[in-house]
Amino acid sequence: MEKADLETLERAAKGLPEPKSFFRGLAPSNFELPNNLILFQRAHANMLGAEHHYHYRFVLIVNLRTEGTVALDNRSFEFRPGEALLVFPHQFHHFHPPKSDSIRWLFLTFELNNSENIAALRNKVNPLSDTFRSYLNRLLAMYQEKSNQKEAATSISMLTGLALLELMQHEGRSSSRTTIARPSVIDQINRYIWDNFDKDLKLSDLAEKFPYSESHLRLLFRKRMGMSLGTYIQKVKMNRARSLLVSSGMNVSQVAQSCGYDSLYSFSRAFKKTTGLSPLAYKKVNTAKY
Fold first, then answer.
1. What is the CATH number of domain 185-287?
2. What is the pLDDT of residues 191-203, one digit of tens each?
3. How far apart are CA 80 and CA 73, in angstroms?
4. In the chain, what is the straight-line distance between the N-terminal and C-terminal CA atoms, in Å?
5. Does residue 44 surpass a pLDDT of 60?
6. Which terminus, N or C, of the chain has the lesser number of Cβ atoms within 10 Å?
7. Residue 180, Cβ neighbours under 10 Å: how many?
8. Where does CATH 2.60.120.280 sit in the chain?
9. Which residues are 106's β-sheet partners?
């Protein structure tokens, strides 16, 4: 460390007050660190996809080049270089074509059990501070060190947490076009499915809970989502099963039960049809990467 750096630290240390108590200090909030992180980037607009998306992870999008528009639920956000946008689980989102095919958008996806501590980031476009950029540079460098990725997992998680906290320090802007509306029945059904993926969900049960006949509910869902309700429920369960197999420590039978399958055979057959691998093979292949 350079002498000038030490002198800067010394000046900062001089300003420390005497503790009022040597037994009672700062008590941080119960801030949960992001886990199961995946980072990737998109260099061309056609890689974003124009179709609607539902997802079950947090997705932090950082715009490094080329303005675009991101739609979240009933809101549209102008998304400019030097800004970040956090998409929460269950949010219906899609991308309008950016102004140029050449883009550079960074995606950090992760899981959290409790989103209350970062609720301030919902439906906000946030500017990237110098501190955030510093965290992001370190995070990217560490993530790309594949040989050390397992050992660096905790540091990567902590850097992502610090980056999120830094975003909350700066006032973001809300959408350029906001439509305040009661969540549609499709949005309510989506949330219900995700909250109850551990149950054997049937169309008749959903029709009983929501004010529509089975046939009408089926038509509404296909029109909005582009797939049948049964297919969507299956996607929810298989998405969750993949995550549990890799990151939860559960065995295959426990994962099957957690995803609403009474029969291990039925679960294994559905899983292999979706992924091309048996649950056990998938667990072995993907756990080895971490």
1. 1.10.10.60
2. 788 788 788 888 8
3. 19
4. 34
5. yes
6. N
7. 6
8. 35-178
9. 41, 62
